Every structure is written in C-alpha cells, then in structure tokens.
Amino acid sequence: MQSAGLRINTKVASPSVPARAPRRTGARCTSLYVACRAAGGAPPYSASSRASGSSGRGSGTGSAGSAASAGTWPGGGFGSFRPGGAAIPEDAAQLAKRLGELQELLREAAQIALATGPRGITRSAQAAQALLSVAREQAALLQAGQPPEQPPVVLRKLFERLGATYIKLGQFIASSPTLFPEEYVLEFQKCLDSTEPVPFEVIRRTVESELGMGLEDVFASVDQRPLATASIAQVHAAVLRGSNKEVVIKVLKPGVEDVLTTDLNFLYLSSRFLEFISPDLARTSLSAIVGDIRNSMLEEVDFRKEAAHVAQFADYLDRAGLRRVATCPGIYRQFSTQRVMVMDRLRGVPLTDLDAVRSITSVEPELVLINALNTWFGSVVGCETFHADVHAGNLLVLPDGRVGFIDFGIVGRISPVTWRAIEALLLATGSQDYETMAKALVTIGATSQEVDIKAFAADLEKLFSSLQAIDAELIVQAGAGGTVSASVAADDAAVNRFLLDLVRVGENNGIRFPREFALLIKQLLYFDRYNRILAPQLRVFDDQRINLRQVDLDFDLN
Hints:
The protein is an alpha+beta fold. The chain is built from 22 helices and 15 strands. The strands form 5 sheets. Strands 3, 4, 5, 6 and 8 form a 5-stranded antiparallel sheet that branches. Strands 7-12-11-9 form a 4-stranded mixed sheet, with helices on one face. A two-stranded antiparallel ribbon has the order 1-2. Strand 11 and strand 12 form a beta hairpin. Helix 18 (434-444) packs across helix 19. The radius of gyration is 26 Å and the shape is globular. The relative contact order is 0.13.
C-alpha cells in the first residue's frame, strides 16, 4: 500500500489470508435465492449445504427431502413432522399466532394481486419462455456430451432474457458484494444492460402524452437517434424552442414500469411466503432485504426521484460555494414527469482520457481531480444522498475546467457516524495504520461477537501489502498528429475483486458490512483510478488541497 494517492491497486489475485472459520451474521444469499426460485433457476447454494449448515443458517433450511429423512419438516410450518406421517400439534397460542400470520400474508397477497391485475398472467408467460430458452441451451450442451454451464452463468443469462427487472437486479447483485456470494457478484459484472432502441415514434407518443403538448411545441429539434439506450430508459438530444438551449430528454421505455412492478411484487411475495414456511429465514430479514431492493429499483423508474437527487446536489453546490469548480445538469421541472425528464446537456470528456482533458481545458488535470474529490467528499455528508456511480461516463470535464456530475439514478446514504469511521479508514490507509483501519471497519460493520483487533489488522495488512508491488497498468495509445492518450487498464470486475476480498476478510473476523459501505468504497476506487491517470504524483491524504478533514468542520460533525 503506497501512501501516494489512494493507491489501492485492484489488479491482483486474492491474497492469502489466515484461515479462520467465517462467521456469517446475516443473509448474504437469501434474496438471491428468492430471485432464483422466482425465475425458475437453481439457488446459489445447494440443499445439502444448507442442510449441513455450511451456509451459516443452521439445519432448519434444508430441502424437504433431506429434512423429512431427518424426521423434521423445514421451518416447522404448523407442526413438526415424524416419519410415518404422525403430526405433533404445536402449542395453541403458537398455532393461533401462525394462523394470524397466514391471514395477514394472504391479505397482503390479495392486495398485491389486485394491484397487479392481468399483467401478471402476461408476465408469467414471458418468464416461462425465457426459462425454456435457457433450459434448451443447457440441454443442447448435455446432448453434445459437454457439461452444463455453472449456476451463476445460467442465472445471469436467464436474468438478461427476463428483461429490465432482472437486469437491474443483476446489477444490484454485482454492486453488492456485502450481500451476495462471490461467484455471483463476479458473474453478474457481465450482465448486459443494452437493448434494442425503442422506435422514435413510440418515444414521441410517450413524451407528448406525459407533457400534454406536441413535441414541436416544446423543442425546436429532437435527434431521432438515441444518445443512449438501456433496459429502462432511452435518451435523446434536443434543443428547446425559444431559448435554443441544448438539452437531453430521458424517457422511460413503454411497459417497463408494469414489468418491474409485477416482477418485484412476485419476488417480494415469494420472500414473504418463504419466511412463513421457514421461520428461520425470518430471522435473516429476507423480506426486508427484498423490500429494500424493490423500493430501490422502483425509484429508478420514477424520474421525479432522480430529479430530486439532482436538486439536492445542486443545492449542496450552491451552499458550499462550489459552482466555480463543479456543476450538474439543470432540470426543467415544467417539462419533467414521472416518465420523462428534460435536463441541460453537458458537453465534456471523461476523466479517464488524459489527452482529451488537456485538449478541452487549460486547467491542469491534477487540479480538476482535486476539485472532483473535494466536491464528492463534501457531498457524502453535505447532501441527503451521495452520487453512488461515479464511473468515467458520469464525471465529465467541461471546457471551463469544471467537473460535471451526471446521472443520479444510483445514490447512497450514510450517517455522520459512518462518515467519521470512513474518514478514519481513509487516513489510516494513507499512513498504513492497519490497527486504526481495523477499528474503523468494526465501527462501520455489524458484528455480534468480540473482534480481535490485532488479528483483524494483521489480515488487513496481508490484503493491502499484496498490492504494494504492482504499479497501475496504463494503456498508452498514439493518436493523430503525435498526440498520446492513456487510460487505466483496471475494470469494474477488478474493483469488485478488491471489494470481495475486503468483505471476505471482514467476515473471517465476524464483521458484516452494510451495502452502503461497498457503494462508498467502490466510488473511492474509481477516484483512485482517476488519480493514477490524471495526477500519479498526487498524495491524496497528505495534500493540503484535499479537504478530507475539513468535511467534519464544514458540516459540524465534530
């Protein structure tokens, strides 16, 4: 671990860490289990491993067959089960409680079914078709004498064919190494979020329906070719009528909202039924996890939420006096609804292209990076939410040298207490103080046991020391006219590789980190990559221009 910059190099294999039995204190796999069952696929851990307790959930979560052979029914249900079919009645009070829970569950299921309506039937047919296509592929492999693909690969392919909901769920899995098994996190890095563009006439009808006026009444021109298209939305460049301002129009694809609502309701009900059938799962907060996923994903199809996140960030920039170094798109509220959002178009270049940065602005790349770091660090506690997807496409260097933050679809939230622990972690990282790092990580994570700080610190030292000898690998390309451009070779999979290693070290010491921690650290790793390409000599934690410590004073956290 070098002290210059963040210097967390992610191009490295898993380090050797002292083997201690992992202590899993929460459900890392349970929501994936539900998604898998809902999609008709295999769960990410076998019935035998669950029955033996290797997944950390005890013996009450095995398959029905293995449980019956042991003389018990999984989770108890309304009574225990004995070989020969003899049932042992539960205590009357417990039975009454279970009946009440069943009535509540059925009432909730009925409400969701009524809200979903006939969409559920159509969606079920689509899901069956996707499942059948994946099954045929695996059958063809078997007929050719080849082994079927691994479960994570099969599930990822199924998710891609199931469409928007499951693609977004796959991306959630890929960005949540604190919740899901390592092999699934790595595989879902490949989950493709690229779909065929929706015909422009469909986009026109959606915009006109949402705004209640003709397209030509609002825009002087609209580029019929999309700037970008993904599973949920499509983006078009346009010019506003009257002001002639360049804007972009983000449009929710038709039918996406219905599909997401139907799928996510099904996943949520599945988790509730699983908790009822197997009370052991209730202790893992399965339905709460799935409920959080549902709320998070439904926020992405309500552009009013994203507009609110942008407004919060804009207010933070104004309050902190940062408009001279950073900006974000202005939202045209009068032309924005739940399904359509119109915002200023920012023209710039990504932070990872050093040659482009130097050509577009006279501001030194190092200063651009410092401004981006200070702006983002302050927003983590200065805003209600922080930008949780600062990859190169979402941070643009503008001609005037400012950094433009765009696409606030994914945001995170942390408390001031957690931020102070993150701050201590970052400062300890710069000084290679592993014991302080260990104490900070214990504060951030959840644990139900006493943590051996010295042992944890030793594990962290092994993790970070394995990165010291490897320099950042740069790809240098010669361009026209003798220009040279460079980019960092590390990719998102490498970033998540480091996160998985950190999560594993934490679990080996009895610590489970919240998802927000992984989101935050991932953004720091993005900035580490920008540090290497724009200002390799910059020592982030020693440079007085980096206001990491000042954040506490600015927002009264001391």
